[in-house]
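Second attempt. The first submission of DUF2855 family protein had a stray character pasted in from the spreadsheet, which I only caught after the job came back as garbage. Lesson logged: always re-copy from the clean sequence file. Corrected sequence (377 aa) follows.
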Amino acid sequence: MDHGNNRDNAEQSLQVTRLLTRKHALNQSRLEARQERTDAAPGEVLLKLDRFALTTNNVTYAAFGDAMHYWQFFPTGQEEWGHMPVWGFADVVDSGVPGVAPGERFYGYFPIASHLRMQPERVTARGFYDGSEHRKTLTSAYNQYTRVSNDAAYASALENYQMLYRPLFITSFMLADFLEDNRFFGASRLVVSSASSKTAYGTAFCLRDIPGVSLAAVTSERNRAFVQGLGCYREVVTYDTLETLATGEPTLYVDFSGDEALRARVHHHFGSALVYDCFAGSAQNTGFLRDTGLPGPRPEFYFAPVQIRKRNADWGPEGVNQRFNAAQRAFIDYVKAPANGWLTLIEEQGFGAAQERIASLVAGASEPKAGYVVRLP
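This time the job returned cleanly.
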């Protein structure tokens, strides 16, 4: 585009639509539209969001929005309203950056908006990082945008699965690696709460062939049949029957629920058999771990970037990518096979559908088998 031309304002006008979420009432959202220029300034790119996934992971980002700075990635300028981050694919509309061309497609971390302007830096064949000033102090993994034409893990037919699982599966893959790397802290059994969640069963998938370790799932009565059908947990109990699990072997608690009352029951029930308590995150409990005086090991917060940094040092970044890509492809191939019954893909259209789906996810009304994808016009 000719950035210096004098086309009339109507010709240069672009409507940018944003979906804003009320920070302290995540089930409430509203749409906001404004007119912007159609071109990118020097040093800037203009992208159009094409599709994104919606899972409880996105609700978690919003729930931890203040505590872990997720609201800061896409500031709205409005104190009560934030941009819920999502993972998806966007196309370059215009570029003022050498090495980033109009028409290119990128995977990454976006606001729910029709368009977004970024300031790419560290541009390589692999992609770029958004160097916008307000993102410089934030976790760099969220600032990276991958050029699909040079992504070894990319396949156009698998875009929906990549959006749904890649942000979660990196946590699953590195959590499984962290536990194995530490020899499961001496445990021979892992008790997994919120076992129907995608991150939990992704972790279970990664650990399915580890000798000498079994997995026990804790889930709701509503999701029990789904969890049993996954086939990756040796035992499945509901929350109200947790105490039926035997206490005779070294046990590690992998907590995806964040439920303090459940954690207390786990510690008291397993007693000295509990060797490690790993808090892997939760959409329900937005507080950080507190010392509640429980017997046994102190609960420890698991943060995937720490293990990624360790493995980058151990294997090199390329080695990490190769291992992760292979594991992710095996997982996606398994999940998308209808005969395995792990996923029903649901593709919805437009901002209104996104608003309804977010409200449903916040209310906990989604089915564990469902994977929700939204496409924008």
